## 1
Amino acid sequence: MSVKRQGIKRGIYLIPNLLTTGNMFSGFYSVIASLGGEYIYAAVAILIAVVFDGLDGKVARMTKSTSRFGIEYDSLADLVSFGMAPALLIYSWALNSYGWLGWVAAFLLVVFGALRLARFNVQVGTVESKHFIGLPIPAAASVIATTVILDQHFLGMGREIRPLVILLITYLMAFLMVSTIRYRSFKDFNLQERKPFRVLVGAVLILIAIVAQPQAMVFLIFVLYALSGVVEHFFGQAIRRTLALAGVKNREIEGNPQEEEEIVDRDVVVSKRTP
């Protein structure tokens, strides 16, 4: 007698899981590059994995193809790309001469990253989507990868300074991942909605800075994000009070249209006229 299983959907969604596979392949390539001493390629591969990781979730939400399988597969890919890959990168590049301090730091990056992913998976659907609890593992890996790139292009840290800096960054990123500090997810930022004109100006300036100095600017962006949660956690109330006062002043200015110029972009409606 056959038993009919109810509530079980056969098959998987193809496109988001292919993007997740691209994420895992980039992490695997980073591991191979680190073993071969190609540290810049290894760091760039981690950043490419970050792009794939952002795309698979975005595509899954846009196409309404989110699934439990996709969440678990994404976590496994993240552990390879943002746990094992950066851990092997920093150990091979800077920490292999530090003995147990070096491999413990690399291992903490892996195990705390795994704990961060496990906590995220059990909190799916129960925690507000506007914030992450703890530093996301792709952001932690990106700070490490961009540090390697920045050092190769600008800093040139010697063998004496480099391990100390990397050791400090690694321990900091590891503990931020398992902390309870909230980080903004920006999932509620809708690019299809109208934004103030100053947002466009700021975006253009950021793009120009990235094109002019991509190594330094990408590093700065990820470092600022890693620090943003800490600043907001300890100084959030003071910042919110300041922004509230600024909002009151802005509303007073907006009450007088002569004091601030508004740019209005009206929708154009094209109607077909019949002769």
## 2
Amino acid sequence: MNDGNTSSTLELTEPPRELARRRSIDAALPIHTVRDTQRATVRVVCVDDHSVLIEGLRAQFAIDGHVRCVAALGSAEHLLNAVAEHRPDVVVLDIEMPGPDVFEIADRMRHLYPETRFVFLSAHIRDGFLASAFRCGASGYFAKSEDLEEIVEGLRRVARCAEGTFVMGTKVRARCQPPKKPAGRLSGNGASSSSVHDGRTGSATAHGTQAGLAAHTGLMRGANGAPVTLLDSLTQRELEVLRLIGKGLSRGEIGEELARSPKTIDGHQERIMKKLRVFTRAELMRFAIREGLAQA
């Protein structure tokens, strides 16, 4: 009886201002819980001119349950408006689409909406595309031939990883593998604060030299932290020779173009083949065409 009276007295004598403060805090708790739950869902804008791929991603998002497509576009023309409207966590961009250059649009988006991250999803894993993606500030690169489950997991990783991380799918990552028998020369020794993630395992190394990172993750990295591809290993002269090979010029014609003897061109070609891990001139021509060098 006395305990009940004491409790009643304490409650009645509590300062009205303090009581109001406690009640306002209690009333706000469920709201914060809902907002935290909403933030756990990764909001994605998909930009691709192939609707089948977007529908496939949406289906995988539904299976995953933690990713949601808030908008889908057929080109990057109105992407900045869509980002302004939906404020997504991640934007998925196809590279080869009609309309404006996606790398230029992505660079503008990075400056206008730095809180939104973006990744590239392409049917082709070209060294030039990979380098351009890193330069414009992308957070990842995936091949369309990757498993959808791996792509979605990669998007989730991009949404929560540290700034400067570059997430790659398994097939893209394979393009940045050093040769099994390296020649002992690396194309950069600078340390970098950015890191590279395997889209499947999530392993990463930061603040390491290129040699240390290659030993830990199997990836070659340049002094600026960018993934180093096979094309990056070529000298300027070798790139020029490869470009002319892609145009279909013979060794003699290339020699005339560069004012070098056919024997010198043969030496360049041999070194190019070793660096690109190809065995025939036809493979060199296909490589040059695939990378767009023959169009230069």
